[in-house]
């Protein structure tokens, strides 16, 4: 079987490796570095910074942990070098995986010539040489990911207005950072750069941060981040970004740089900033694929796929951000498994409906399954069970007592969702994900033995509430 995969992010390269292990001949096409946005300018470098930020916070609270006389300093260049080293190490690991004899990596930009053929405009020095190459296959999997959205705000192209990519590559910590958008990306950068010493203001158009998450959890996270000195302007519309010299303020007010003008409840205001991060979301990278020549159906929100990740054209699949669904690396990986299994005639039990998500702020947030809002909209009778980290022995020992665990169950006690704000939420959520996926209930969770003392006890405590 011959397979062409367009895009070497997690959904692309992991699918390529699995296909090669199963005996398929794979051509993997990538126009940038392997690993995609996640490895090179998203998940991994951000989490490297998260760890540096967490260490700063822990050192800052040393006296509350019984440690005195501790001297330390923060070297942003060293933290950046560590981030870059981690990315390079993992990228080398991906290249090792792709050295499989059945995988051919082509560096170039891919587009459809027809429904069975991909045209690759190769970069200089690629394995395929220069110029253009036509590659035909029995199966084509599109995994080209997404790009940051730049809203149509006057001044969006001014120097100092950046995406997450540019902010990750900064040579210094901005004294004042204004973040437009309080979704996952915006809040992670807010949390990181506040720890690094920036004055951070987050502007969000919606009434609450993390609009797609459980409202209780979102509110709790905002309150926790506010305690750390992050300023939030929710229910606020950004109207313009201008150089500070045009803002009508003195240099003492703004310190130079940029001014972000906004409207909130009919009144205007201005936030001064040295950097402005655009973090209002991402959109599928559709524009260069020439989908029309292959007859592939799509909308501005992404390529249309079914439960098996099939497009409307036989033999063509799409996975990950390009479909406009759940824009998470782990979702792309499992969608790739589903697509490959279907293409090879293999039945699987991959449950793409149960998709955990995490926000790597301090404290972390993680969720799986239904929220209260979703239950109300669907007319599902439910109850909530809660427990708090302040009552958890391990959390007290860690000095991280902010947050709660919230379970959503139906009237028969079946677990519909779990939402956590607190330390290591991204790790704790997987127990709940397994229970939700298996159709388990509160009795099943209560009957599981949990290590003591451990953070996982918050789950059993919520079930026993």
Automatic annotation (TrEMBL):
One of its GO terms (biological process) is 2-oxoglutarate metabolic process. The gene is lpdA. Binds 1 FAD per subunit. PROSITE patterns: PYRIDINE_REDOX_1 (PS00076). The active site is a redox-active disulfide bond. The keyword Nucleotide-binding applies. InterPro entries: Class-I_Pyr_Nuc-Dis_Oxidored, FAD/NAD-bd_sf, FAD/NAD-binding_dom, FAD/NAD-linked_Rdtase_dimer_sf, Lipoamide_DH, Pyr_nuc-diS_OxRdtase, Pyr_nucl-diS_OxRdtase_dimer, Pyr_OxRdtase_I_AS. NCBIfam families: lipoamide_DH (TIGR01350). Its EC number is 1.8.1.4. It holds the Pfam family Pyr_redox_dim. FAD binds at residues 47, 144-146, 321, 327-330. Gene3D superfamilies: 3.30.390.30, FAD/NAD(P)-binding domain. Its cofactor is FAD. This is Dihydrolipoyl dehydrogenase. It is found in: Cytoplasm. Residues 1-336 form the FAD/NAD(P)-binding domain. The active site is at residue 452. Disulfide bonds join 38-43. It comes from Candidatus Cryptobacteroides gallistercoris. Residues 355-462 form the Pyridine nucleotide-disulphide oxidoreductase dimerisation domain. NAD(+) binds at residues 181-188, 204, 281. Belongs to the class-I pyridine nucleotide-disulfide oxidoreductase family. Keywords: Cytoplasm, Disulfide bond, FAD, Flavoprotein, NAD, Nucleotide-binding, Oxidoreductase, Redox-active center. The keyword Oxidoreductase applies.
